[in-house]
User: What shape does this take?
Amino acid sequence: MLNEPALPGQVLEFISMEEQWRSGVPREFSRGRRVADLIQRELALLVQQEVEDPRIGMITISDTTVSRDFAVSDVYFTVLPERDATAVEEVLNQSAGFLRFRLAKILNIRSTPKLRFHYDSTMNTGIRLSQSIDKAIAQDCRRGTINDPADNDCVEEN
Assistant: This one.
């Protein structure tokens, strides 16, 4: 139908970046997301090189968010072994002031956000869910209750 009005999302595809900027339409990557990504990259290096606490093992900064006013940055991390997660979270939150000071020297922004560290358990949750699914499939295979023979989830183990 040629005379139907386009949906709002379809209209935006034809607006230039300059027109989007002038109209206040958010771009694909906001400044907050870019700042959060930069903080994530720099913190990964700083934690590895500058924090000298034996309780910190293999740590990965998995995600970083920044509040709208850039006052606070929530930093999510994973650590191996998992049992040390609460101790590592304490160490990182105690080191937050030092890390913020070091970030301020690296970042070229007006004010550096306050850092709050949180253990990210999504990876472990995903592993547990995957193991539960594998276990359920194995039980169905043993019972012979898989309905779709084309579904090759039942693989004989050696």
